[in-house]
């Protein structure tokens, strides 16, 4: 039971850390950078492990974070050349670096537990068994401690630099006029994102990292347009996704990474469908109302012109036209005159208000 509790705790802190970083990427329109970072850190991770042969070495995190920042820098260099789009530049760079990492894994780590399946799926199911002991005292799972420290760093960084991040992400030109150095600020928060990706890599794997950095922030974005609320809602959705996915994994008797990612995706689909104001259903109802209003105003305009069979000039199906006329009569906007339809006083006011 304690293993399950620790595994869930590791999943929760990892999910919240990724969701906070993913929220910054989302509002900066750089969500796919999470995909690139989760792959581009691999060469640095492997090189550091080959040199140290200690997967607990801090050099792994530093080397992998440096690899991620190199990916960001190369992407900006390729994009600024103007020869390819931003997305294409990102795809070229992270695909090349990930391929290099896979080659290094296949060539140098063939006989170790650091293999390709851990890169993709992570090691969340067994993370609670890797304990951190200091002076003979068991402090808990190493992954939980590392991700808790990373979460603390992310929260402190976002809290302290919140105003600077807000203006630097949404209006870099204005931030530059205020002397905030938006380029340096971007490097700093991308560095935090890179460190979070590296720390979560061994636990979550590349697939879950991308899912947690995109799905919860994207769902939160459909529920609010304020950055502070987005950060909070994304964290809540990440917690719910990790808990729901964890118990789904227990029910299916599978590794938790896949179910957590799937649960996050299902939460996003639910919010995408039913979010008030921005959800698919709300947008469909809004478009339906707009079409209805437009059709009614079009019919009122043609009726106001009078003449012989004015409604035959409207490009609206006959059955739909009949329904519109019935609805307008029920609203008291039109009335049947001698051989033709006429507007009532309310109908004339409605038409005047619409085109005023």
Can you offer a commentary on this structure?
It is a single chain. With 356 residues, this protein is mainly alpha-helical. It has 2 domains: 2-275, ABC transporter involved in vitamin B12 uptake, BtuC; 281-354, Orthogonal Bundle (Arc Repressor Mutant, subunit A), CATH 1.10.10. It is 75% helix and 4% strand. The protein has 14 helices and 4 strands. The strands form 2 sheets. A two-stranded antiparallel ribbon has the order 1-2. A two-stranded antiparallel ribbon has the order 3-4. The longest helix has 40 residues, at 182-221. The termini are far apart. The mean pLDDT is 79.
Protein traits:
elongated; 356 residues; mainly alpha; Arc Repressor Mutant, subunit A; ABC transporter involved in vitamin B12 uptake, BtuC; 2 domains
Strand content: under 5%
Main CATH class of the largest domain: Mainly Alpha
The helix/strand class is mainly alpha
Our Rg estimate from Cα atoms comes to 28 Å
Q: Spell out the helices and strands N to C.
A: HHHHHEEHHHHHHHHEEH
Detail the poorly predicted runs: none
Q: State the CATH architecture of the largest domain.
A: Orthogonal Bundle
Q: Main β-sheet: number of strands, strand sense, barrel status?
A: 2 strands, antiparallel
Q: Do you know the CATH topology of the largest domain?
A: ABC transporter involved in vitamin B12 uptake, BtuC
């Amino acid at each position: 039971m304690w293993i399950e509790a620790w595994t869930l705790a590791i999943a929760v802190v990892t999910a919240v850390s990724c969701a906070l970083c993913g929220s910054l990427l989302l509002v900066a329109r750089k969500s796919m950078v999470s995909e690139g970072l989760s792959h581009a850190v691999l060469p640095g991770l492997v090189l550091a492990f080959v040199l140290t042969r200690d997967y607990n070495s801090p050099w792994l995190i530093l080397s992998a974070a440096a690899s991620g920042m190199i990916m960001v820098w190369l992407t900006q260099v390729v994009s600024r050349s103007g020869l390819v789009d931003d997305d294409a530049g990102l795809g070229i760079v992270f695909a090349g670096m990930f391929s290099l990492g896979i080659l290094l894994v296949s060539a140098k780590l063939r006989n170790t537990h650091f293999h390709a399946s851990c890169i993709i799926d992570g090691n969340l199911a067994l993370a609670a068994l890797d304990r951190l002991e200091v002076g003979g005292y068991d402090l808990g799972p190493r992954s939980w401690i590392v991700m808790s420290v990373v979460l603390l760093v992310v929260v402190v960084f976002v809290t302290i630099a919140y105003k600077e991040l807000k203006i630097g992400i949404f209006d870099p030109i204005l931030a530059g006029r205020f002397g905030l150095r938006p380029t340096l600020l971007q490097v700093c928060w991308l560095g935090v994102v890179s460190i979070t990706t590296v720390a979560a890599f061994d636990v979550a794997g590349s697939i879950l990292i991308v899912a947690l950095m995109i799905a919860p922030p994207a769902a939160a974005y459909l529920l609010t347009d304020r950055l502070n609320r987005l950060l909070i809602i994304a964290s809540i959705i990440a917690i719910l996704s990790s808990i729901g996915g964890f118990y789904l994994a227990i029910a299916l008797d599978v590794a938790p990474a896949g179910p957590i990612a799937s649960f996050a995706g299902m939460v996003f689909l639910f919010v995408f469908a039913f979010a008030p104001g921005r959800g698919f259903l709300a947008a469909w109802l809004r478009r339906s109302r707009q079409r209805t209003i437009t059709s009614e105003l079009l019919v009122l305009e043609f009726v106001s012109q009078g003449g012989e069979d004015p409604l035959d000039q409207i490009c609206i199906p006959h059955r739909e036209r009949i329904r519109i006329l019935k609805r307008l009569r029920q609203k008291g906007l039109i009335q049947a005159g001698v051989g033709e339809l006429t507007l009532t006083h309310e109908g004339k006011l409605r038409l005047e208000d619409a085109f005023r």
